[in-house]
Amino acid sequence: MSSKVQRSVDIISDKIGALNPKYAVILGSGLGALTTSINDPVHIAFSELPEFPQSAVSGHKGELVAGTIEGVPLLMLSGRVHYYEHGDAGAMRPIIETFHQLGIENVILTNSAGSVREDMPPGSVMQITDHINFSGSNPLFGEETDGRFVGLSNAYDQDIMTKMRDAAKKSDVELHQGVYMWFSGPSFETPAEIKMARIFGADAVGMSTVPEVILARFFGMNAAAASIITNFAAGMTGDELSHQETKDMAPIGGANLAKILKTMFADL
Ligand code: HPA
Question: Is the pTM of this model over 0.90?
Fold first, then answer.
């Protein structure tokens, strides 16, 4: 662990006192409002945390919020950094490592994604059951220990997935399940790439999450993830895609995802 990660761990530990969170939730574009579900929130800006990379993407705030939801202590991160920002797939490593050092055992990732499926329209919520890394990159490039050969046969934790599905049923929210395909971005896909994604077995496409899942597994934490579908993928409608659409649509599905997570935490 670098001394800077250690400093971030010390600063967060100091600010959250005896909270002892076992869950961390990473929020995707336009999902920052989920932090308002947190009781007794402690806000820590990334700028206060050495080596927490600041995302420059609009819709990402750059803060860590600690507190409880339904009595469950947790950390919520609003402001992930993406591979496409600097071409560094390991950009989230200091944050994920900090979580690990703080004793977090479960990392729940959320993102905005494009749907490849006609029956999964914008506003849908999809539990990610597996992924396809189509970026050509990996957050563990440069890692020298044998730990880099992380097994990903069960990358997404079965137990958390079941809990999430039960919570969705209980909250009367439809929860799709599917495979997420990671494209590097930042340009959106072409219609031909989306055709390929469908043939390859993807249900949704996006520009994040996969590096964090790999890092969480590398550090021995459980990972689970859900996508908010903000649009049909390229070529599926006559419309051009835009980041504005992602930001506008994310809160709609996000409200349903918030319901699922709240119910899940209440039942833990
Ligand atoms: N493609 C990639 N990333 C995305 C999309 C998309 O269609 N929608 C939201 N994030």
Answer: yes
Q: Tell which CATH classification among 3.40.50.2020, 3.40.50.1580, 3.40.50.720, 3.30.470.30 matches the domain 3-267.
A: 3.40.50.1580
CA distance 82 to 99: 18
Q: Whose CA is nearest to atom 10 of ligand 1?
A: 113
Sign of the CA dihedral 73, 78, 83, 87?
Answer: negative
Q: Cα(68) to centroid of ligand 1, in Å?
A: 30
Partners of residue 133 on adjacent β-strands = 182
209 lines ligand 1 (CB under 6 A): no
At residue 178, the 3 state secondary structure works out as strand
In ligand 1, the atom with minimum distance to the C-alpha of 115 is: 7
Ligand 1 pocket test: which of 189, 190, 193 has the largest number of ligand atoms within 8 Å of its C-beta?
Answer: 189
pLDDT per position as a tens digit, 49-73: 988 887 777 766 789 999 999 999 9
pLDDT digits (tens, 9 = 90+) for 30-47: 778 788 889 999 999 999
